[in-house]
Specification:
- The complex is a heterodimer of chains A (302) and B (271).
- Chain A is α+β, with helices and mostly antiparallel strands.
- Chain A has two domains: 183 residues, no CATH class; 107 residues, Alpha-Beta Plaits.
- In chain A, helix 2 packs antiparallel against helix 7, helix 2 packs antiparallel against helix 10 and helix 7 runs parallel beside helix 10.
- Chain A is rod-shaped and about 100 Å long.
- Chain B is an alpha/beta fold.
- Chain B has a single domain, classed as P-loop containing nucleotide triphosphate hydrolases (Rossmann fold).
- Chain B contains ten helices and ten strands.
- In chain B, helix 6 links the parallel strand 7 and strand 8.
- Chain B is globular.
- Classes of the chains: A alpha+beta (302), B alpha/beta (271).
- At the A-B interface, helix 8 and helix 9 of A face helix 2 and helix 3 of B.
Chain lengths: 302, 271
């Protein structure tokens, strides 16, 4: 079939079926926007993981007088014990990368600084803090090596890993993003059903035309092509609009607002949108073609 | 050109076969009338010839192809060698005369140059010069059928099948249409026409094949319409309207046929 004729018929078909085409476009757009948001949220989690895991430290809290840690048995860490812990840490490079020592007074000062806008800062007393070794690791996953070496060692109150705290936060983010993806799956189902219904309707309203095509010996591909193309074009328009919305969300929402409001965190950027886009658009194209193919097999006699 | 060998066709859930053990042969260049009352199997015979239906048993050979074993993907090639005309014209209402005829070539991938050359030629053959830009509803019934015939022959098929092409037309127009089919036949196309119109069959004196309740009861060269079983209403059926009983054979198009009758009647009244 000639390209010009095909395009002409495609234009006429979409114009005659405008409301149907618009509904397919909108439903595809919303479902793909949701899917895109879900995927981007996951990439956000990954970005933050990369950012934060480089910065997480394992804290080895030492004992102070009247310490609340059971392992201390109420006795403060002796300078010998402290030196021993330090020496042991030095021996563990790698995975130990750097070792910082923070005294009780320094920890208290840092806390006051961090929570200066909160009533917590006024209520806190220096006694609630402890001396600690803060250890950064070459690989955040290796933290259990530190735990097993120092938990219960003489003079060690408690070993705490910041990664555990972060993981809880990331698990929450992950759940939210999966929620968005699940919702979008539902919307994709809607889109598929709508495409199928549209094709059924169109096949019915064009049965005279397709009947003539069959009679004069048009090939099956020729008869089905307009239906597939109309669905594909509508779906692709919807997907492109969804990508436009995602772009706007990331560009204005994340880039323009969030990243300025929360300076000390890494955020996804346009590269992430461009990484997601081909999968979403390609997925839509495959779904549209498969849906129309299955529907036509069932509802268009050729 | 067309060979039926002991062909039986039983539709699902039907009590008796629509065609039963029918054998016939139509040579290249022949003109054949198929007559018989409604439900006698005329339309089924034509539908078998274009592989709209598959025979339940027996062999159907058309244009050198065995249709019972012809794979689905080859059916379009078969149909490009057969033109088909119906009682209800089946034109596309939003396309002009020219576009309706060109459509048949466009959908089988013919070039624009060929279309520009062939379509006006064909419209001249069927006598529709100067009406290329009309829409179907601006034409009389006879003119609409000429458009349908033009569409059927524009690809120069070897065979032209006409299923009651005059069923919606008045006697004078019917005669003109059959004369056109006769002219097309004289240029070498094999024509098979199913009809109820006894006057036309009697006047044209061509080969007549008569079906009755799915059986071939008569096949004579230079035949007449004969008495047929439904002798009394024959004249009325032929000249008035399509027999509703035919809807069994016409399948999903039956409703449209009735609609087209009304439309044609209205247009015919204006002229």
């Amino acid at each position: 079939m000639r390209a010009g004729f095909v395009l002409g018929e495609l234009g006429t078909g979409l114009r005659r079926n405008l409301s149907m085409a618009v509904s397919v476009i909108l439903v595809t757009m919303i479902s793909m926007y949701l899917l895109g948001l879900g995927l981007l949220a996951q990439r956000q989690v990954d970005t933050m993981k990369d950012y934060w895991y480089d910065r997480v430290q394992v804290s080895i809290f030492l004992c102070v007088d009247g310490s609340q840690y059971a392992a201390c048995a109420g006795k403060a860490t002796t300078p010998t014990q402290r030196e021993q812990i330090k020496a042991q840490l030095e021996q563990m490079k790698p995975p130990v990368k750097e070792i910082f020592y923070e005294s009780q007074a320094e920890a208290f000062k840092r806390f006051k600084e961090q929570f200066k806008n909160s009533p917590l800062a006024e209520q806190a007393t220096e006694r609630a803090f402890a001396d600690s070794f803060r250890v950064s690791l070459t690989d955040a996953g290796k933290y259990d090596v530190i735990v097993s070496s120092f938990q219960g060692a003489p003079g060690v109150g408690r070993v705490q890993d910041q990664k555990q705290l972060l993981d809880r936060f990331f698990a929450f983010m992950n759940a939210v993003s999966w929620g968005a993806i699940a919702l979008s799956a539902l919307m994709v189902l809607c889109a598929i059903l709508l495409m199928a219904t549209t094709i059924r309707q169109t096949a019915f309203s064009r049965r005279r035309e397709t009947g003539i095509m069959r009679l004069v010996g048009a090939s099956n591909a020729t008869i089905q092509l307009p239906f597939v193309l109309e669905t594909l074009v509508s779906a692709l328009i919807g997907a492109s609009l969804a990508m436009g919305l995602l772009w706007a969300t990331v560009s204005y929402g994340v880039g323009g607002y969030l990243s300025k409001a929360l300076m000390d965190t890494a955020f996804i950027g346009m590269t992430d949108v461009f990484a997601v886009a081909p999968w979403v658009v390609g997925g839509v194209a495959i779904v549209a073609v498969l849906t129309s193919w299955f529907t036509l097999r069932r509802y268009l006699r050729v | 050109m067309i060979l039926f060998d002991a062909v039986t066709k039983t539709y699902p859930k039907a009590t008796r076969p629509a065609l039963s053990e029918v054998s016939l042969e139509v040579e290249r260049g022949e003109f054949v009338f198929i007559v018989g009352s409604s439900g006698s199997g005329k339309s089924t015979l034509l539908r078998l010839a274009i592989r709209e239906e598959r025979a339940t048993s027996g062999a159907v050979l058309v244009a050198g192809r065995e249709l019972r074993t012809l794979p689905d993907r080859r059916v379009p090639m078969l149909r490009r060698e057969i033109g088909t005309v119906f009682q209800d014209f089946r034109l596309l209402p939003n396309k002009t005369v020219f576009q309706n005829v060109a459509f048949a070539l466009q959908v089988i991938g013919k070039s624009r140059a060929l279309i520009r050359q062939t379509v006006p030629e064909t419209l001249r053959v069927v006598g529709l010069e100067g009406k290329e830009k009309r829409l179907p509803h601006q034409l009389s019934g006879g003119e609409q059928q000429r458009v349908a015939i033009a569409r059927a022959i524009v690809n120069k098929p070897a065979i032209l099948l006409a299923d009651e092409p005059t069923g919606n037309l008045d006697p004078a127009t019917s005669r003109a249409i059959v004369e056109l089919l006769d002219r097309i036949n004289r240029s070498g196309t094999t024509v098979v026409m199913a009809t109820h119109d006894h006057e036309i069959v009697n006047d044209f004196r061509r080969r007549v094949i008569e079906l009755d309740a799915g059986k071939l009861v008569r096949d004579e060269a230079d035949g007449d319409y004969g008495k047929t079983t439904s002798a009394i209403p024959v004249v009325r059926i032929a000249e008035d309207d399509p027999d509703p009983a035919d809807s069994v054979e016409d399948g999903p198009d039956a409703k449209r046929a009735t609609g087209a009758t009304g439309a044609t009647g209205a247009t015919g009244g204006q002229r």
